[in-house]
Amino acid sequence: MGVRFLAALAAPALLGCAPAENASEPAAPASADATRPGSVRFVDVTAETGLDFVHATGSAGSYPMPAIMGGGVAAFDADGDGLLDLYFPNAGSAVAGDAGRNRFYLQRPRGRFVNATEGSGLDNPGHGMGAAVGDIDNDGDLDLYVTNFGDDILYRNDGGGRFDDATAELGLATPAWSTSAVFFDANLDGWLDLYVARYVQWNEARECQVQGGRVDYCGPQQFEGEADVFYRNDGGRRFVDQSREGGVSLIADAGLGVAAADFDDDGRTDVYVANDADPNQLWMNRGEGAFEDDAVLLGAAYNRFGVGEAGMGIALGDIDGDLDLDLFLSHLIEETNTLYVNLGGAPGLSDGFDDRAAEAGLAAPSTPYTGFGTALFDADNDGDLDLAVVNGAVKRRPAALSDRDDWFWRGYAEPNLLMLGDGEGAFVDASSASGDFGAALHVSRGLVPFDLEGDGDLDLLVSNLEGAARIYRNESAGGSGGGSGGWVSLRVVDAELQRTALGASVVAWVGDRPVRRLVLPLGGYLTGGEAPLHIGLGDAVGVQRFEVTWPGGAVEEFDGAERGAEVVLVRGTGR
Amino acid sequence: MTPMPRIRRRRSAADHGFLAAVMQAVRAACRDGNWIMLLVAVFLAAAMQAAELPSPDLTAVEPRVRSAIEKELAAARLEPGSANAWGRLGMVLQAHQLDAEAEAAYVEASRLAPAGFRWVYLRGVLADAHDPVAAVSLYRRAVELDPRYAPARVRLAAALEKVGLAAEADTHYAEAARLEPDNAVAHLGLGRLALARGEVDGAVGHLERAYGLSPETQAIVATLARARHRAGDRDGARRLAQAARSLPPMIHHRDPRRAEVDVLAVDSESFLRRSKTYRETGQLQPSLAELLRLLELAPGNAQAHFAAAGVYDRMNRPREAASSARRALEIDPDLAGGRAVLAGALFKLGRFEQASAEAERVLADDPADVHMLLVTTMLAMRANDVGRALERLDRAAAAGASDPGLRDLMVQLQLELADALGGAGLHDEAGRRIEQVIEALERAGTAEAELRPLRRRLEDHRRSVRG
Q: Quick one: angle between helices B99-112 and B117-128, nearest 10?
């Protein structure tokens, strides 16, 4: 495995990792046009890619709560060929027959997806929700944890895209209703630990009504919450449930989204959990697998009004260029999506967060829809983070927006949002001018930005409930002033651990402008995976230098790169 | 699927000529001072302008909801020129979340009575949920019509915050606080905005005021925790943050105009929701009244019986709690939590064997049910079965309690068992239990002053161990 891992690293390094000779050119300031609606357009190219996955809930006509909450996706390089492959959890054959089977697609060749479920070992019959991806045994390939309504499953990768069920062997039996999960190194021992968010103790006998008696899906308030689970990875051989010792079992809320990152720059990875109608948790890592929930103190538990919202998906990124990590949450219709701006502070002594969704222009456009998958990414390569949110109702809309044929799901379909950032914390709603992405009406759940064609702009994969997954190709025009600018793609790895250095922080100096990005797993809502870091450069010719802060706090500097380079930063090879 | 509301004026394009003639007649009557003709013309104009009634889809609603809505539809049909009839129709539609139809009814009510505050205001409340920009406009109009109604100022301020107009929001919160000095929500708004501006001391002042007025409101306690944290009072902030978690989530606008809508909802969910709201704010009698009203209308509603059992339990009326829980289980034997409430009530009634049987049934299904583990701990302690009590309590501690009430009970039982163990000379085990309690309380943010007596007891046991 190790040889394959290093070989995979070597290819892009040889192709494009040379230091840029002209990388000291100052970055162009973000053009006013860069936030102009219409400057970024997406075209639905699903049919061209061969991706034919159709999610099935098996429940039209009835209202089992798990049916409306599932539909996640994983995107990761399963077979070590450098291309992202896809895994779609589905409602399971017990609920939806053959149409409810999970599906696994290999990307082969670039831009084309082939159904590779048969023989992959990934044909989990459970009621799938989402997935997390990480190399649990540091053998150089990515393993897959599938969350279920029911027992979860850990699939161990043999390195060639074939998997075996190692759940029992590794002690990872997680019962009840799991939703999102994330791998991260909590105790800095080099092994990826696992946090699993869990939802509610659903009782199918409970029937819920709206609008004076019309039956619809229940909300989480009708049920007891389920405590989350934290597993410590014991040397890749076994996972030990440390939920109680770690403190996370003290709270039983309706968890949906989860993200692991160092929110207070103390070198330890913290965990943020978006809860549905409960206050969110910000589990600050106190070391040795112990956590303390500081979400209320730090202003990230409730919205600006002090009210807990229906937290679904999470996006992380530095939206205002001040080099700290801001936090975005997607929410229910009639609530606003929430932007928690990081107020900074000394390492380990965070000043907390402020809800500035309204000031950023992110509140009003979101109130008519229920947001799920979300991602901060540079849609137009201007160097500023933009935002996508995929929507889909959980209660039937009074007036359907879609004219799709099936009457049952028509009332739940909603359009997606694309918000273009100015790099200073403000966004412009570009949804209606974003092409097929903004025009599509589906019941959407998962969202993954990734470079489908290797052309340097980020395309979007969207997973939908009771419908086909979609791939939207980014067709932003090239050049400056509102189109697609330059870019570099980064992989940040710890060769000793034979894996991506999850939790590392990269500052790319684009001229005299520092751009900070974190090495994190893919996330959002029920979404997992690993993809290269992508940094838009605008009109700059390249990156002058990279500064990497590795998990634990060690800092290393690397040479820069020209625009268009696919760079691998290997720990211990810089300065 | 609920269809789009079919709302349109009766007047069509063909009516324009007639309308022009009527308006001409009005102008002539005014000019000539012919008041009878003026009245006739105005009446004709109003009648011609009346909107079509909304036609909500009532196919799936409960019969009493349909009846309530049809009654108001009939009233509006009978008096198409009555703003009150249209407004009442809007209210009953809004109460049952038929928002688009309610909006149309309010529009007509406002058209008929343009100077009426109520219908504009309720339209604002409707818009607030999905279109804050429209809500701001409607609330502004409402505040113009009745500048002294503080809840409208508060809602306008909140809507202004949602669209990023914090400075204007601040002036309306301030005016609301002037009109109603005990309006906790207004003080919360002032504190929140001051905190966002970085004026930490000012924020703490406003928020302390709000906290003094409404100490059981989660939003106030949570925001005060943030402010105190920013002010450097980390311990005080942590205690407040911990307390906020167990408070009811909603914040109560004291808003009589809005409350008049809520009480019109007659579907089962609304009774249960209102009851829950009352229960969470400690208003047990009104909470029970809502459930009893629902049970009059729907005697077979298991959820209502179950909720009533919970309220009776909180009222320390175990006989009624047990009876309601039993009824709920008769109707729905699988009702989650029903058997646990029954076991708790039977325990309080002193029917220990029955309580034990019910609790064991719950534990057979869910061995980690903390509530039942604690009930069986108490039963074992009553029977002087210390071994069993310890086993159950340890299982409860291992499962961990997220509910603050259960956490308190667990602490209390740990301390009682520690006393019993100490009395039997088992100081090492007694000390271990007190250590666990201290650890749990520290995690919960308990103040050091409250922990001091426990530390003394721990030291006593340790001294006894040392001999």
A: 150
